[in-house]
């Protein structure tokens, strides 16, 4: 997705966050849970996509208040090449774009952050914030061109 898209069935827009706004982007959505959630998202990508070798990630903001992050394929030699994504826990294996892989990794990162908060001195607000972000991401998934693959990987 370039800068902004819309779907006939919904009013959820998605846009790439400008470079100048990146520093405050994740804290805006996740507060003090931003660094941990980002860590779990990167870790999920490393576990699911063997071809992933790190690099620059794009931040995407959803008009419903949600977000996702995804490895940038801009300027790379694999810009249009799908990547193999494997979710061993459910037996999923499929080819997806880096953007779809990022949506999947973001969902895993949010869920793992919830799990990490269990037993810690977390507050109800932390769980509510993370749960709200998961819901907003899932509200966007049906609008993504690869929604079937995303759902299959998140079952």
Describe the 3D structure.
It is a single chain. With 155 residues, this protein is α+β, with helices and mostly antiparallel strands. Helix content is 45%, strand content 20%. It has five helices and six strands; from the N terminus they run E-E-H-H-E-E-E-E-H-H-H. A hairpin with a 4-residue loop joins strand 3 and strand 4. It starts with a strand and ends with a helix. 30% of the residues are buried.
From the spread of the alpha carbons, the general shape counts as: globular
Name the poorly predicted regions: 1-9
CATH architecture annotation name:
2-Layer Sandwich
What's the end-to-end separation, in Å?
24 Å
**How many domains, as an integer?**
1
DSSP strand (E) fraction? 15-25%
What order do the helices and strands follow? EEHHEEEEHHH
CATH class: Alpha Beta
Give the tags.
155 residues, Alpha-Beta Plaits, two-stranded antiparallel ribbon, 5 helices, disordered N terminus
Which SSEs are present, and which pair or pack?
Blueprint: E1 5-7, E2 10-16, H1 22-30, H2 34-48, E3 57-62, E4 67-71, E5 83-87, E6 92-96, H3 98-117, H4 124-140, H5 147-154
Helix pairs in contact: 1-2, 2-3, 3-4, 3-5
């Amino acid at each position: 997705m370039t800068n902004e898209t819309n779907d006939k069935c919904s009013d959820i827009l998605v846009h790439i966050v400008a470079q100048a706004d990146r520093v405050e982007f994740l804290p805006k959505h996740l507060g003090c849970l931003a660094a941990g959630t980002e860590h779990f998202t990167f870790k999920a990508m490393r576990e699911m996509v063997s071809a992933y070798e790190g690099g620059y990630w794009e931040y995407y903001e959803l008009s419903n208040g949600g977000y996702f992050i995804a490895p940038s394929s801009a300027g790379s030699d694999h810009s249009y090449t799908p990547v193999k994504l494997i979710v061993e826990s459910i037996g999923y294996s499929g080819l997806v774009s880096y953007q779809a892989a990022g949506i999947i990794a973001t969902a895993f990162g949010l869920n793992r952050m919830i799990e990490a908060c269990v037993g810690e001195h977390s507050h109800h607000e932390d769980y509510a914030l993370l749960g709200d972000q998961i819901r907003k991401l899932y509200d966007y998934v049906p609008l993504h061109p690869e929604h079937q693959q995303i759902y299959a990987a998140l079952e």
